[in-house]
Specification:
Elements: H1 2-25, E1 41-44, E2 47-51, E3 56-58, E4 61-65, H2 82-95, E5 99-102, H3 108-118, E6 126-131, H4 135-140, H5 147-164, E7 189-194, H6 200-209, E8 221-223, H7 229-249, E9 254-257, H8 270-275, E10 287-289, E11 299-302, H9 336-347, E12 352-357, E13 365-367, E14 376-377, H10 381-397, E15 402-405, E16 444-448, E17 469-472, E18 476-482, E19 486-493, E20 503-508, E21 531-535, E22 542-546, H11 551-561, E23 577-579, E24 581-583, E25 604-606, E26 628-631, E27 634-640, E28 646-648, E29 653-655, H12 658-661, E30 666-668, E31 671-675, E32 688-692, E33 702-706, H13 708-717, E34 725-726, E35 729-730
Parallel strand pairs: 4-5, 4-15, 5-6, 6-7, 7-9, 11-12, 12-15
Antiparallel strand pairs: 1-2, 2-3, 8-10, 13-14, 16-33, 17-18, 18-19, 19-27, 20-21, 20-31, 21-22, 22-23, 24-25, 26-27, 28-29, 29-30, 31-32, 34-35
């Protein structure tokens, strides 16, 4: 008996050790050596074929990307539950999509939901699954052959294979989903997209440091003579994931490697290479598949109409465009997006999938599209919907085999380079920053409030109460309330003549600075105001900020004004108030020479001028970018928190004095002051009342709302037969 126990223990230890080692090194103990390898996906020339029950047929990937964020949680919380996924899957199918793309290894709720939604469904929702390289690994391990880069890439690929086959029964570890993966969803996983938007310096450094690694010959993938060391690394990872799934599960599916314009394989002239630092390429044409791989390879790209800037100059920078007129609209607008897509597709011998495309419906903007007007922010939900439709048409007209719209849901936790310094990045998921464009790519919005928002700027003041009043006189009053996205003001003025008289709303937030006077404005203020809201007309209502408290000056003075802000510090009580702008990505025509003698001011976006319109989503004339509306003697205004320099409104933290801290630091406040007045009586300062402020901490309220883009894509995709296409343009559906 003792020997038996010892023998059993030895076997258990041996098996456990083998499972651990095999997981780390990727070896398999297969019992399917003689089993036929099966696949329900393949490629034929530039087409993707899928067996949906009637044999291999052409299949247009028509999908939507899905992140992992919901309000109150960061992406790494993996807080979306199965019920939410099931509800979203139904909505996505009803929109007309056939596929969801996810980026990384998720918690088991996602895979359980996929199985439950699809297992008895004759019209399933397919999955394209990614393998993520986290930012720390990508930016800290510049050599892709380093242990922490390549080994983790290979390990996560193997984990993914086991997960989709329902054969992973333990927590995955830090920054990954976790749970018990027992549901086999492989019948609905079309393929894998490996990697991320490659950092060009990582690609360049790898190619420099690993010059001898310029070839790979695997059972399923190999490189050509033109392959670079980085491309060789990709071939190795692709080959190993195919090998692992083939040997362990007798199964194969489509495979692609992520890419984007920064590392595209196209030939650009020296102006682009110099001016825009376009210095590295990744070309998957240098990676070939063998006859042992029954499924197929496609090229995957993230391509947006506004990025990078040089797309806007394709027609003047030597890009080979056989017919410029082919990409020019009737009004003479050059469709640089379609031209670029066409060039990308023409480069490849394999099917091309645009796995990310879209524009954000945000108030803030980070980049402008000089040709098509499809910019990175500053677009209404209506404009976002039209842009999604046009992007889709451009993609299919270019001959691509499919597309995936970015993205399903808005993501409060996201950051953008031109606003990230203005907010506390550890608390972004607890409030909605309308100035940060990356938060608003979704076609599903998360609006504040459990059922509805606390206020809608629509001219109907019935939601306002007497307790909201901040100050009042015989003829005027100012009310204020707020939620997770806006500070709302209601102004009442007897016999108000909009467009013929001007109202002033001074706002005092910080005790560190501010002024009782604003240059060019007659009335004084009771408190030292940091901002002045000027209500004048439909086109010229705006908010100004005291120069001392201008965030753009504190962060980008050298690039915008040509001077060091910290060598020319404004007085704390200066009466100079300035417009509010956001920094934009440099988008100047590179054909203009930059001379050392001249200063070229960086481009900015006016975000202080307020937009007139109806901000109620239930209204027929809804404009998501509306900031204010006037109805007789009533004015309603909503201002994004960060427009008032709030660092983290969930805890009521604002920007501290920039010039005391040499940058942006936070300071907590419990109240601010605001009032309203006119030019009519300048003998007395504008009276200002107290607005009590209390944050909501880590418990924001929110509800879902579908944006116009959902319905626009639904209309576009409603007839599935119309979605069959022949390159280079979609079939006309009448």
């Amino acid at each position: 008996m003792k020997k038996f126990i010892i023998a059993c223990t030895a076997v258990i230890i041996a098996v456990t050790c083998w499972m651990f080692v095999s997981d780390r090194i990727g070896s398999t103990l297969s019992f399917n050596m003689n089993k036929e390898v099966k696949t329900f996906t393949t490629v034929s020339d530039k087409e993707i074929l899928v067996d949906t029950g009637n044999g291999m047929e052409p299949f247009e990937i028509r999908g939507v990307d899905m992140g992992v964020g919901i309000p109150g949680h960061f992406a790494t919380d993996y807080a979306i539950d199965k019920e939410t996924y099931l509800r979203w899957f139904r909505m996505i199918k009803d929109m007309g999509a056939n596929c969801v793309r996810v980026y990384t290894l998720l918690q088991d709720d996602f895979y359980d939901a996929v199985w439950e939604f699809n297992h008895d469904n004759p019209d399933p929702l397919y999955i394209i699954h990614g393998v993520w390289i986290d930012d720390y690994v990508l930016y800290s391990h510049r050599d892709a052959y380093s242990k922490d880069f390549l080994n983790e890439f290979l390990r996560d690929s193997r984990i993914l294979v086991d997960m989709i086959h329902g054969n992973k029964r333990f927590s995955l570890g830090e920054d990954l989903g976790s749970g018990s993966y027992t549901k086999d969803i492989s019948p609905w996983v079309l393929g894998y997209i490996l990697g991320v938007e490659w950092e060009d310096t990582t690609v360049a450094f790898t190619d420099h440091m690993q010059e001898e690694r310029d070839s790979y010959e695997g059972k399923y993938m190999r490189t050509t003579e033109e392959a670079t060391p980085f491309e060789t690394m990709l071939a190795q990872v692709g080959d190993k994931i195919i090998e692992y799934e083939t040997e362990k599960y007798s199964s194969q599916r489509l495979i692609a490697f992520s890419n984007w314009p920064t590392t595209d394989p196209l030939e650009w002239n020296q102006t682009v290479e110099w001016y825009f630092r376009k210095f590295e390429q990744v070309d998957v044409e240098h990676i070939k598949t063998t006859d042992e791989f029954l499924s197929g390879q496609f090229a995957s790209y993230h391509i947006y109409p506004y990025f990078p800037d040089y797309l806007g100059f394709m027609d003047v920078l030597g890009m080979k465009i056989e017919s410029r007129e082919e990409f020019t609209d009737e009004d003479g607008t050059f469709n640089s997006y379609r031209a670029y897509l066409t060039a990308i597709n023409a480069h490849h011998t394999m099917p091309v999938i645009i796995s990310e495309y879209g524009v954000p419906s945000s108030r803030g903007r980070a980049q402008s599209d000089r040709n098509t007007g499809r910019s990175q922010g500053g677009m209404s939900e209506e404009e976002q919907g039209k842009a999604l439709v046009q992007c889709y048409k451009d993609i299919m007209a270019s001959g691509c085999a499919g597309s995936v719209a970015f993205t399903w849901q808005d993501e409060w936790f996201k950051r953008t380079w031109n606003t990230m310094a203005y907010t506390d990045l550890t608390k972004t998921c607890y409030w909605s920053d309308y100035q940060t464009n990356e938060q608003y790519f979704g076609i599903l919005s998360f609006d504040p409030g459990e059922v509805e928002s606390v206020c809608y700027v629509d001219g109907d003041v019935s939601e306002w109460e007497e307790t909201d009043i901040v100050m009042e006189t015989d003829t005027m009053s100012l009310s204020c309330k707020y939620d997770e996205k806006y500070v709302y003001f209601r102004v009442h003025k007897d016999d108000f003549h909009f467009g013929n008289e001007t109202l002033y709303v001074p706002i005092d937030t910080t005790p560190k600075s501010g002024s009782t006077a604003c240059d060019g404005i007659a009335p004084l203020f009771e408190q030292e105001a940091d901002f002045v809201l000027i209500i004048s007309g439909r086109e010229d209502t705006k908010i100004l900020v005291q120069e001392r408290y201008e965030a753009l000056r504190a962060m980008y003075s050298q690039r915008v004004y040509g001077e060091d802000a910290y060598l020319n510090v404004p007085e704390k009580d200066t009466g100079k108030f300035v417009p509010i702008h956001l920094m934009l990505q440099v988008a100047n025509d590179p054909s203009f020479e930059i001379t050392p003698e001249g200063f070229e001011s960086a481009e900015t976006f006016d975000t202080g001028t307020l937009t007139y319109g109806n901000g109620n989503p239930d209204s027929a004339d809804f404009n998501s970018l509306s900031d204010f509306i006037v109805n007789g003697d009533e004015i309603e205004i909503r201002l994004p928190w960060s427009l008032l320099n709030f660092y983290n409104p969930s805890e009521m933290v604002i920007h501290d004095d920039y010039y005391e801290n040499y940058g942006i630091e936070g300071i907590e406040i419990s109240e601010m002051y605001a009032g309203v007045g006119t030019d009519a009586n300048v003998q007395f300062p504008i009276k200002m009342g107290t607005v009590e402020l209390k944050g909501w901490g880590t418990n924001p309220t929110w509800h879902e709302r579908l944006k116009q883009g959902y319905y626009d894509l639904q209309e576009l995709w409603k007839d599935k037969d119309c979605l069959l296409y022949t390159s280079p343009s979609p079939r006309d559906c009448s």
